[in-house]
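Hi,

I'm pasting everything inline rather than attaching a file, because the server keeps stripping attachments. The sequence lines come first, and each chain or strand is labelled.
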Amino acid sequence: MKPEDYLALDFTDLPTLPAGQLDKHIEQLVQARAAEQPMPPERAAAPEGPTGARPGYPVNRRDFLAWLGTGIVVFVCLGDMAAAQETRRQRGGRGGVPADFNAFLRIGEDGRVTCFTGKIEMGQGPITSLPQMLAEDLEVPLESVDIVMGDTALCPWDMGTHGSMTTRSFGPALRAAAAEARAVLLELAAERLQVPQSQLVAQDGTIVDQQNAQHRVTYAELTKGQKITRHIDGHPPLKDPAQFKVMGKSHVHHDGLEKVTGKAHFAGDIRLPGMLYACLLRPPAHGATLKSADTSAAARIPGVQVIKEEELIATLHQFPDVADAAREKIQAEWEVPPATVDDQSIFEHLLKVAPEPTSRNDAGDLTTARKDAAKQFTSTYLNSYVAHAPMETHTALAEIKDGKATVWVSTQSPFGAQNEIARALGFPLEDVRVITPFVGGGFGGKSQGSQAVEAARLAKAAGKPVQVCRTREEEFFYDTFRPAAVVKIDSGLDAAGKIIFWDYKVYFAGERGAAHFYAIPNSRTASAGAAWGASADAHPFATGAWRAPGNNTNTFARESQIDLMAAAAGIDPVEFRLANLTDERMIRVLKTAAERFGWTPAKAPSRRGYGVACGIDAGTYVAAIAEASVDAQKGTVQVKRVVCAQDMGVVVNPEGAQIQMEGCITMGLGYALAEEVHFQSGKILDTNFDTYELPRFSWVPKIETILVEHPQLPPQGGGEPAIILMGALVANAVHDATGARLWQLPMTPERIKKAVESRGA
Amino acid sequence: MPEPIAFTLNDKPVRLAADPERPLLWVLRTDFGLTGTKFGCGEGHCGSCAVLVNNVASRSCLLQLKHVAGKDVVTIEGLAKNGALHPLQKAFMAHDAFQCGFCTCGMVITGAAFLRTHPRPTREQIVRGLEENFCRCGAHQRIIAAMQTAAEQIAIANR
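And the predicted assembly:
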């Protein structure tokens, strides 16, 4: 069989059933694992991933608006959302779907419900949790909800998927739309059934007369022939959490079948007729300038097309490996500025160029408190540059047809990418459509769309669809690293072991998580240098948001300092924290974690290898306790067990929330123990996973997660909070095991050995 | 035109006249359109590109087309047989043993090969068996649980 015949095969023997219909077998597995869980949802017409050309969806704006106009459509703009204001300002009434709203949903004449969101799915689970929220307030079965994500032609403008905002901000808008749609359906039903609305109840996609259960009408029947559009600004009444039927229950991820069979399409998996793969000439270091480039040898390779457009030099071919080989033939001369700073000297450099820290949250009188303190502690904490390193590198495929661009992009910010592409091509915004297929991990690193701009420019120049897929080396080189940062803390205890003052200065990590939450009468929190943006000149390369930006560094420093004060006071670290806390939410999560762990009080270092840390991120409170063993000879750490308790308000999908906590704990082991970008000024020395280590299976402890109930509080962030604890959690466990304090992340074997050697010095 | 290279791909005999030194990964992804096999690192570190070659999990980014001449290659698309998912695929779904899903295909292929040779694996054996496969999202604990479930299910089916 030739490849073209093979391509014609569609592997029809593959299972195509939706999750719920797979077979009894998998359902039993799901049930056996968690008896309290409902069955995996069915989807009568499973869409092909979150986006892309789906049967039944119109592909251009005019058709889309016409299609939208049938059935019941509710647009929501929640006035109190920052996003809403941005929506108005940035969209400014341009083309695309109607402006001025954050969310909308449509109930079709077949009764199926579609939710449209500019948010994207990168593993954090909104493909499952957003339909849950919608189904809850619309009173429909979860399996009748479809979701379209990250498509700029079909979805409302969105600022991007980051900051744990999807459930917190977008969720309420979606629930408001659902509640409004339910109200419309109740009105229609009252007319149809000729009974007062108060007598009717919505359940399972049907409106039922409470006095005669046979007297009922389905949403599909009510929607047939309707063209109803509603715009709402306010907050329609939402449900009492005690009444939740779909929210608050665990559901296995909706994208499971696609992801385990290879059918899930990521940006690099989209295929268009005649498409070419591009490899771009890359500089050897940031700051390098191109002196000359001879592409003649590359151009002689059969089938290779060379494109040179100012600084954009690329080899294109129908096979990516041939395009790559052609790139290797380019003879380029670069001028590289001499290196002035590296991963050793960076902290000194940062302190030298830092502006004066500015303080917020001042309380009490530091000067007097310093004099009154029985014990004082002065510490400096260092944290390195860390890469996002998603398994999927930045990828984009661009097609330009009839003056319009369609670009499939692995991005956390489809509308941002649309903007960048339109500017680069000189196209009006409405002539650029960005489609976001499944994204193979982001963690804050896929917020910029430079690979999409490259693909679009090359597609325009080549006259054919072009894919750009970064190599792993390019991925490291162009990453917007988590910034290296320094934290300096002066703190003091009174004679009774209470924290009497706290003077905190953070340089270049940013303010997220900088403010402490302990009951300290005299304190100051100051920050110097933003984590990215305004601080660009301080770093030899780009920095950016990295899962819970700023908070990993701040929580490492704060919780290490708290721990060393507890040890100096001779007080158990959990008891010390509880004695210095008045915040009930924090006390509750800490006590919950300690209880589940089976904590017994002891003064550190107890040689048990127990560590504790607490933190707040994205509105969520989190505390964890770990047990670790340290091989002092080798300098290695094995974290054996982590118990983590989290209060995140209403939990939409408990299973999904726990998956995120486990992911945070596992990923966080990387920056705690190994991850660190090596460089000499603009030259990035890490080019692949041989020198840049990611957490592996053998590192993974037994992880136990607990969701502390708090149903009166709206949903808070879930994808980031637990990761902030990992630096201090492991550092405190290492101290408890060895008596050695680690001041710098990551805690590499070299640093641990050094700390153990200088113990007590 | 180079001499065609013949091999079996997901139970179907195929022939491809191409440079025999082309990476198998890109031959699969472009020439054959089998995009379940992912590019992750290109140097054999991460395992996203794993395929079965004569039932052995192999890194397709390091293999060349000529290396599979006459051999039996199975990609994630060919792992399910006769419309039934492999028990490990089901177990991954049941345990939510993925987040972004980009490493999942390589993980399932590597895990399926491992279970053939280790029908009753201990946790430690599973850890060693998957140690060279990377997951950035941190689904490791659930992947281990899925492996244990799949091993049990295979044992039950073979009883």
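The first strand of chain B starts at residue 5 and ends at 9.

If the labels don't parse on your end, tell me and I'll reformat.
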